[in-house]
Amino acid sequence: MIANKPRVGEPVDKLSFSVADGEGSIAIGQPKDRWTMLFVYRGQHCPRCKRFLSKLNQALPSWAELLDVVVVSADSKEKALADKKEFGWEFDLCYGLTEAQMRSLGLYITEPLSESEASGLFSEPGAFAIRPDGTLMLVDISNGPAARPDLEELLDGMKFNISNNRPVRGTA
């Protein structure tokens, strides 16, 4: 069950995610120079996530021209690093998404079916476009692994929204 629905046009909670292949972290929900696209994935156990993120990685140069791309899951650092190495992902891959952060983003949360799936709660997929002022422009949340945004359509839409300074939609 979603704890709270993210409100477009309003500030995203200030959240920080640890970067898997670095010592630092990435923060969202605060002013910065560029737009941010945050993708939340289920974790290492999800083959659909790996296919989606590999497609994102192939298109990363086009995305990176327009905005910062951040990807996060509840996985451990070790699991995130293993996937990054295996698939050669070049985007900022973060780990350790907490239940409180999942709820803050309004994500669906799942209990694992077994220890082989995951060792604790994990979130279902989500995509969040965040304006440079830290407000939420666009949100796409799924309750399962099969429903994902089309990356080409999403990028095209974001190009249009950013270049035309489009207002937030779906506020009622």
UniProtKB/TrEMBL annotation:
Pfam families: AhpC-TSA. InterPro entries: AhpC/TSA, Thioredoxin-like_sf, Thioredoxin_domain. The keyword Oxidoreductase applies. Transmembrane segments: none annotated. Residues 6-163 form the Thioredoxin domain. Keywords: Oxidoreductase, Peroxidase. One of its GO terms (molecular function) is peroxidase activity. The keyword Methyltransferase does not apply. This is Thioredoxin peroxidase. It comes from Cohaesibacter celericrescens.
